[in-house]
Amino acid sequence: MEWIEAGVDDQDYQVVKLSGECDLYSAPSFARAMIERIESGACRLKLDLTEVKYLDSTGVGALIRILQTAKHSGCAMFFCGISGSPREVLQMSNILLLMHEEDHTGGEP
Amino acid sequence: MNSLIVRQLIVDERNELFDAQGMKYAEFPSEYLRIREYSTKVLAECPPAFLEENLLEQQLSELIKNGIKHGNRCDSSKKLKVWYDLRKRARFIVEDEGDGFADLDEWNDFYRRRQTALFENDFDDFLRLASYRGPRSTEDDGGSSLIAALEYWNGGMIYNEAHTKVGVIRWFSSGSAK
Prior knowledge:
The complex is a heterodimer of chains A (109) and B (178). Chain A is α/β, with parallel strands linked by helices and 109 residues long. Chain A has 3 helices and 4 strands. Chain A has helices at 27-39, 57-73, 84-92; strands at 2-8, 14-22, 44-55, 76-80. In chain A, helix 2 (57-73) links the parallel strand 3 and strand 4. Chain B has a single domain (10-103, 131-171), classed as Heat Shock Protein 90 (2-Layer Sandwich). Chain B is built from 6 helices and 6 strands; from the N terminus they run E-E-H-H-H-E-E-H-H-H-E-E. Chain B has a 6-stranded mixed sheet, with helices on one face. Chain B is globular and about 45 Å long. Chains A and B meet through helix 1, strand 3, helix 2 and helix 3 of A and helix 3, helix 5 and helix 6 of B.
């Protein structure tokens, strides 16, 4: 999996775009990078999962750790582009309930 | 009125899910970096409708990962054994050579507390309990593989008495569960 900085959106969220397979081999380093970013002071963060085609429990765990850190640090987070099997995995894990998602018109939830 | 329903990991040594008659068999060394490769090999001849994008591979990889990482502790001299049958449904038995999933009862207790928090809309507690953390968990463990597994394996998920072997089945309607 790769992730790139995609600037700041019109709601002042720092946007990070993920692509590829968020799995047991790639998710831990992604989690560490995002946690470090939050602990360094990021207060509005959006993760774009549009190009993520595979998500396993390590990837789910990474998202949970990021959400826990964001809550602890007072960082507002939301997500967009969650679809296909990654969405199914998050639903089966009940984690989708914790993830604020951008609505289909592009606004905040 | 809504009621709280919590699934559990079940131990049943004599369950029919452990009957390997007619199933194909493969065994692998416990190499962590090859987990997804092993799943791909087992599913090489799987009917496409069962794959559901990559959901079946993902869920089989979780079972194999649990056996290799938590069961065999990535000791490559220990085997990870897989029996599989992909006729009409997806059925697997996955066995490791470790000392067993010792925390099975604790996990069931954790899962009840987690689902209770969800049922009561206590999202602060639910976020805190979102991942399972046992004595052997590492920082990088997802802690949610068994939660999704209980949902995915819609025909059952059973452990043997030693907690070294799990039998699972997923049924599909019209060639697909959707």
